[in-house]
Amino acid sequence: MQMSNPYLTRRNDSAAIVARVDPVVYEESITQGVSEQQKQDYAKNGFLQIDHLFSAEEVKYLLDELHQMRQDFAVQQRPEAIIERESQEVRSIFNVHRLNEVFKNLVSDERVLNVARSLLGSEVYVHQSRINYKPGLHGKEFFWHSDFETWHSEDGMPRMRALSCSILLTDNSEHNGPLLVIPGSHKHYISCQGETPDEHYKKSLKKQEYGVPDGSLLEYLADMGGIHSCTGLAGSVVFFDCNLMHGSNSNITPFSRSNIFFVYNSIDNQLQQPLGGIKPRPEFIAAREDIDAIQPNNLEL
Amino acid sequence: MQMSNPYLTRRNDSAAIVARVDPVVYEESITQGVSEQQKQDYAKNGFLQIDHLFSAEEVKYLLDELHQMRQDFAVQQRPEAIIERESQEVRSIFNVHRLNEVFKNLVSDERVLNVARSLLGSEVYVHQSRINYKPGLHGKEFFWHSDFETWHSEDGMPRMRALSCSILLTDNSEHNGPLLVIPGSHKHYISCQGETPDEHYKKSLKKQEYGVPDGSLLEYLADMGGIHSCTGLAGSVVFFDCNLMHGSNSNITPFSRSNIFFVYNSIDNQLQQPLGGIKPRPEFIAAREDIDAIQPNNLEL
């Protein structure tokens, strides 16, 4: 991979912007759960929001499960749980599709899984899963980043053939720190400065210090594509390309923001060795073993 | 004042919410620059936004002056300049209506001054002035607060008969940390816990530790009034009541947010002694000496 790698990053030379060489929508035989128009929008913008994909009852059921898990994990000090530095609250829990029956069923729900299969043009597996809770009043911002830049360098994901799916469990308004994206930014790869230290993930999940894109390159992307807030009611789902530049502002409103986050990767895009000889991140953050294609179900939640 | 003070705060008993006893719009003889409908909206919501009050040429002229001042003050280490902790950039400069000829003229510009005189129903003077610069990429959030709660306790402002006027010098979108307000919150007074230490202002202008409203009371206000973003193009002006609950989220966009901020106070509402026997804040933050009514002008900027 290193020889012909079009996506070099985390080196000590200067930051750079290079063109994406991979497709965004992979044209293959699977087309379910997504229209041709939606495919075109996704190819152009790098994201696709589908409103009302889950009912109010399902949202309530999932949100209750999320809060139950946060409560259980608050006392357990497990590595899958990310604790907010100031408030000591559980902000995220990783690996929920293996740790919890409800989320295990959800990850193969055809409403989300088929969209991933159709856009990535192949069978897929789950690279990463988590639940996120951004508290009201003191929710912190999360700086701009391309997930692929991290997955490529720290996990050895070879190509841009993965996507994220964020299932909104609370209403996301313009006020409570919604997902911000730069439309079209997925067509450009921002290589970041600085070699990754070993076990960087233990810190980076709280505050990113490597893999931070250069400010003037961000300005260049934002001047081209503008900035879009993925606002929507609970039950909406946002799918976005692995290389889409995204982040979020803080949340001083009293209204918390919760979602479930699945990353689907093509079975043809399995992880290799991380860049720069660093140690691979653990299975609960980046799957290397549990990589069988998952089959869609239409179970009632 | 202490005997009959309806707005006690900064004490060690618990936080409280009490009804405002003062008018919002003071019905007197002056009515210029604002319609009856606008007065009613302001009375109900606690704020009033007037778009396009300054032309694009005027905005450019004012923004150039703001940047020139920031540059001059960056090297001077003057107390009027508030430096951002992380970036070491000049975030705010106080007292600009005395330090700078352009802003001295602007503070008496009839387009803003007459709105203040009409809403406060009397002649007014400038309690405080400043320019604000919220940088792109790393602009920090500012937590909810009522200005009056601070001015009452730390400056001894007796009554709610003052307003702020924010002149937007860059476009404020939903993305770059615009002013957030809770409509209707100005009708309620949130008393805050904790006695103010002396010289608190030296810290509080960077990060508020006293005068922070209770989270459940904020939720109560937001459930009643919702949350509104004061978004608008450069040249718009937002007038808001001294007791309106407001704050702003962070700004990770590459687009900075700059404004000029004047506080007009009724000449019938001059400062008394601060609560709790603390030392008054300096003249450049809270005017005690320079309190003559200012007369409107219609000079070209």
Give the tags:
alpha+beta, 301 residues, homodimer, four-stranded antiparallel beta sheet, Jelly Rolls, seven-stranded antiparallel beta sheet, globular
Tell me briefly what this model is.
Chains A, B: Keywords: Dioxygenase, Iron, Metal-binding, Oxidoreductase. The first copy, chain A, is of the alpha+beta class. Chain A is built from 8 helices and 13 strands.
Structure overview:
The structure is a homodimer of 301-residue chains. With 301 residues, chain A is α+β, with helices and mostly antiparallel strands. Chain A has one domain (38-277): Jelly Rolls (Sandwich), CATH 2.60.120.620. The first copy, chain A, contains eight helices and 13 strands. In chain A, the strands form three sheets. Chain A has a seven-stranded antiparallel β-sheet. Chain A has a four-stranded antiparallel β-sheet with strand order 6-12-8-10, covered by helices on one side. The longest helix of chain A has 19 residues, at 56-74. Chain A is globular. The interface between A and B is medium-sized, with 26 and 26 residues.
